[in-house]
Amino acid sequence: MNATELRAKTAAELKEELKALLRNQFSLRMQISTQQSNKTDQLRKVGRDIARVKTVMHQVKAGN
C-alpha cells in the first residue's frame, strides 16, 4: 500500500483501513508474545502502514 493509493480513498475508507490495520497489529503482537509466530518483520510493516494512513488522514483534514 502506498500513499497515492490512500489519497484516492475517502475519509470513511481511510478510517476503516486504519481500524483493520490496528486489529492486524494487535493480532500480530499477541502471536509474537505467545510465540505462535516469529514474523516480527510483519509487525514493522503494519506499523509503517498505520503511520502512512494516519499521515494521509491528517493531510486530508488539513486540506493539502
Fold and architecture overview:
- With 64 residues, the protein is an all-alpha fold.
- The chain has a single domain (3-62), classed as Helix Hairpins (Orthogonal Bundle).
- It contains three helices and no strands.
- The protein has helices at residues 3-7, 11-33, 40-62.
- Helix 2 (11-33) runs antiparallel to helix 3.
- It starts with a helix and ends with a helix.
- The relative contact order is 0.19.
Summarize the structure.
With 64 residues, this protein is mainly α.
**How many distinct folded domains?**
1
Summarize the amount of helix as a percent range.
Answer: over 70%
The top level CATH class name: Mainly Alpha
Following the backbone from N to C, one meets helices and strands in this order, namely HHH
- Tally of helical segments: 3
Strand content: under 5%
The termini sit apart by 20 Å
Instruction: Tell me the overall shape.
Output: elongated
Number of strands: 0
**Second rung of CATH, namely the architecture:** Orthogonal Bundle
Mean pLDDT: 93
Largest sheet: none
Helices and strands: which structural class?
mainly alpha
Can you tell me the CATH topology? Helix Hairpins
Radius of gyration: 13 Å
Low-confidence spans: pLDDT under 50, at least 5 residues?
none
